[in-house]
Amino acid sequence: VSSITVFFFTSPIVGFGGGIMMTNMTAWMLSKTSLKKRVKSSGYFTSALFLGQFFSPIIFHPVVSRMPVQDFFFLIGVSLMMLVVLSALYLTTKKRAVLLKNKV
């Protein structure tokens, strides 16, 4: 953040976006579970979110301390894009293999 003013204008936007995302992700997750397992799956989901928030600074602080924050976010972005591309390739290859297997 280049100035404190930008921080005060963007923080509420990020907070509202996170709140909307959390609500929608929870609703989506609960729609995929059975009635018997909703409480347990909601607990797992909430635990995973809070454990991620707790361990994120512990895991990533050594990396951020060795490089500028902008480079770190660029590295994370490139890594996530590579993960998305590799996942898409894997899923299309797997789907193609199933289709070929069913034809034979």
Helix share bin: over 70%
Strand content: under 5%
Give the overall shape, derived from the CA principal axes. extended
Total number of strands: 0
Residue-averaged pLDDT, rounded? Answer: 91
Which structural class fits the helix and strand makeup?
mainly alpha
- List unreliable stretches of 5+ residues: none
Major sheet size, sense and barrel closure: none
CA-based gyration radius: 20 Å
DSSP helical segment count: 3
Order of helices and strands: HHH
Alpha carbon gap, first and last residue? 58 Å
Structural features, described:
With 104 residues, the protein is mainly α. The protein starts with a helix and ends with a helix. The protein has 3 helices and no strands. It has a domain of 38 residues. The mean pLDDT is 91.
Topology at a glance:
Layout lengths: L3 H28 L6 H27 L4 H35 L1
Name its key features.
mainly alpha; 104 residues
Q: What's a concise summary of this model?
A:
With 104 residues, this protein is mainly α. The protein has three helices and no strands. The longest helix has 35 residues, at 69-103.
